[in-house]
């Protein structure tokens, strides 16, 4: 079976001259599992989040038994360690990444009358944080090869009302911060990095989140340093961080604020997770590089591109572009069903339309927005027309497929199973397309 499997790979790609994609596999590649064949991957994947009672519970139990559960020394310790890890002077934790973004934007005095440029390829929290501060989000299209906001598109969207840029290091893959910061400097714009999926990702060995005026992170349950919920802001600006601290702690007597404080037991969980984050990030990068090397040899599979200056990714997700023409016009949905049947979980990522969805109109229709902006500025039809992002729409609707971060914690044999499964689907695409 091993010899026949390897022979099948070589013939399936480009005849006898095709590169050898997998070595050492003993899996059959005959009939797709979704058509009744044996599935490629028969074992499980890493659980998430990970918790080791022997090493993780002592600190958490100490905090719980202390009776000091609201913000105190454990939260401060986590903030100090996170600032050190990221390479920032200060860190402030918040209840979640969404509120980290809200607090970061608010305390840069971004609000009513301002426009903030961001990407349509992100989680809704990015946009909500702009709207919650009374500013209007403006969307610049993406580079489909990287899935990141395209700096050229950013500059096209700048108007006299533009106040800031919120680039998102989506999937933990760094945006082109050198070009973005150059644009911001040229036009005197503020920059808040949404690094909520980009823990320890680097550009020229400098951590993302430390390029702009502020950087924001999330520690929600699915994230690489999970606390259940949690967020953080980092910055080198001491005065700014003092304002953020006051704002997250009711504001005190000096400024208006709210309550965003992290709890002690969340911080204790985070400290346990932080101990293994670097090693896990290395594993994810090694497996990501291996998948890129192997999967690019399969026609119709185009792995994401990292910018040349990226020295480390975080890989919350590992994305690729699926070209159905190379799979006998098998739809993306049917490709993913077949891949999942082989024991390889995958998804399509974000849906198109975040930039034109009704939640924006709901904000525009609110009393506050109607008092802050003119009727013409809040004309939703005109807004939608100005914020079209066709490259993002096509990527989301037709091409994007991704593997989750817990898959990237697997073994090299697990990665071989992924490649074998994709190749199996490619070689049987005609049968699968006929069945769909």
Give an overview in words.
The structure is a single chain. The chain has 436 residues and is α/β, with parallel strands linked by helices. The chain has two domains: 2-46 and 276-349 and 396-435, Aspartate Aminotransferase, domain 1; 53-272, Aspartate Aminotransferase, domain 2 (3-Layer(aba) Sandwich), CATH 3.40.640. The chain is built from 16 helices and 15 strands. Strands 1-11-10-7-6-2-3 form a seven-stranded mixed β-sheet, sandwiched between helices. Strands 9-8-13 form a three-stranded antiparallel β-sheet, with no helix packed on it. It has a three-stranded antiparallel β-sheet with strand order 12-14-15. The longest helix is centred in the middle third of the chain and has 32 residues, at 264-295. The chain is globular and about 70 Å long.
Straight-line distance between termini:
28 Å
Low-confidence segments, given as residue ranges, are: 1-28
Stated plainly, the CATH topology of the largest domain is called: Aspartate Aminotransferase, domain 2
* Strand order across the largest sheet: 1-11-10-7-6-2-3
Characterize the largest beta sheet: strand count, sense, and whether it forms a barrel.
Answer: 7 strands, mixed
Helix content: 40-55%
Number of domains: 2
What is the name of the CATH class of the largest domain? Alpha Beta
- The radius of gyration is 23 Å
Structural category: alpha/beta
Give the overall form. Answer: globular
Which strand-content bin applies to the residues?
Answer: 5-15%
Described by its quaternary structure, the protein is single chain
Give the second-level CATH assignment, the architecture of the largest domain.
Answer: 3-Layer(aba) Sandwich
Mean pLDDT over all positions: 93
Number of helices, counting only DSSP H or I runs of 4 residues or more: 16
How many extended strands?
Answer: 15
Query: Can you tell me the CATH superfamily of the largest domain?
Result: Type I PLP-dependent aspartate aminotransferase-like (Major domain)
